Each structure stands twice: as C-alpha cells, then as structure tokens.
Amino acid sequence: MNVLRHAGLVAAKDLRIELRSRVATNQVAPFAVLVLVLFAFALDPDRGVLVRAAAGLFWVAVLFSALLAVQRSQSIDTGDGVADALRLSVLDPAAVFLGKVGALVLQLLALEVLLGVGVVVLYGVDVAGAGTLALTCVAATAGIATAGTVYGVLAAGLRVRDTLLPLLLLPVLAPVLIAATRASEAALLGDAAGVAAADWLRLLAVFAVAYGAFGLLAYGPLLEDG
User: Fold this and answer.
1) For residue range 47-102, what is the model confidence (pLDDT) as tens digits?
2) Which of 49, 78, 107, 143 has the fewest CB atoms within 10 Å, i.e. is most exposed?
3) What H or E segment, with its residue span, contains residue 112?
C-alpha cells in the first residue's frame, strides 16, 4: 500500500507542475491537433482514403505528441536537483516509476479524447465501437507511458537525450502503434471481425504488462545511473 500511496504522491507532483506550467495545453495539444489538420489537408481530395486511414493517423499524432510528453515528464526531474532528491528519498523506485507512468497516462488519455473529437470532426468518421476504442486507448496508452518512462530515464543522463530519445523509443513503440491502429480500425470502421479486434487488444495488454514489469525492475538501477 505504501508503494501505491507514494506513486500517487509522485503522480500528483507531476500533474501539479504540469497544470502550473501548462506545457501540455499550450504546446503538446496544439501540436497534436495541427498534425491532424495537416493530414486532413494532405488527404482531403480523396475522402475515402482519409476515412480509411483515420485510425493510423490518429495514433501517429498520439505517438508524436507522446514523445513530447515523455521528454517533458523527464525534464521535470532533471532540473533543480529533483533527480538527486528522488534518489536520496525514501521513495521506492517502483513507486516513482508508477507515479510517473500514472501522470503520463492521464495526460495522454486527455489528449486522445481531444484528438478523437478532432478525427470525428475533421475526417467525418463515425465511431462504430466506442467500447473497443476506449479499451484500445487505455491499453495502448499504458504501453506508451511505461516504455516512455523507462527510456526517458535511460536517456536522461545523456547530453543528446532530446535527439536520442525518439531513436530509442520509436522502434519499441512500433508494435504498440500497429496493434492500436488495427484495433482502432475495427472500432471506427465497424469491422465485423470482432475476434480480430479482441486479439489486437490482448496483444496491447501483453505489451503494457511486459513494459510495465520491465520498468518496475529496471527503473531503480536506471535512476541511480542517471
């Protein structure tokens, strides 16, 4: 229970800083919406292609925005000696990891709601399976946040962390992006193959659990090395 309580404290700290700085609302969210708008202008002459590609374009926008969110999440701990304070504190590294992941998940889910509205408005897509889409977002976001937190702290101690993080993170998140896109296609396009959507959702859950388990084990040593 102490781990969960400490994780809640870390998540609350990150969210309070984010609310005060408004980086997510003033930078990350406008960037994500702009990506959707650019896709709309690029593919608008062929409306059918835009509708069919909506799921993939949605997750590409989420992925680009997640890179910014992960960098921002890690930068909170790299300034003013916060990382040193975390290392010297009595907080379990697993609690710090879970707190960072929790704060990132909440931010990304809020962003995905905004982008979902944008897809419906800009692309004219009807959501046939809202439940499937919601489960997809939760499972995929958990995978993105856990992997992003691990690789964020891995790159934190390097001078080239801003350019290295995408190179490290994008290959790891490629399977999550593919599975999320396929599951979202079933939700947006009303794919009758519900079994296929369920299979992709299970795959997303496996990725989230695997990345989360690895993060719980590796975050402490990575935090110390950082």
Assistant:
1) 677 778 888 899 999 999 999 888 888 777 666 556 666 666 667 788 889 999 99
2) 49
3) helix 93-123
Where residue 127 falls (left for φ over 0; alpha for ψ -120 to 50; beta otherwise) is: beta
DSSP 79: S
Measured between alpha carbons, how far is 67 from 210 in angstroms, rounded to an integer?
A: 20
Rounded to an integer, what distance in angstroms lies between the CA atom of residue 39 and that of residue 48?
13
What is the phi/psi pair of residue 79, to 5°? -100, 155
**What residue segments make up the domains of the chain, in order of their start?**
2-225
Expressed in percent and rounded to 5, the helix, strand and coil fractions of the chain are 85, 0, 15
Cβ 136 vs Cβ 187: under 8 Å: yes
Q: State the Cα–Cα distance between residues 23 and 189, nearest whole angstrom.
A: 33
Phi, psi of 193 (to 5 degrees): -80, 75
- CA–CA dist 195, 218 (Å, integer): 34
- Coil, helix or strand at residue 67: helix
Cα 201-215-137 angle, rounded to 5 deg: 25
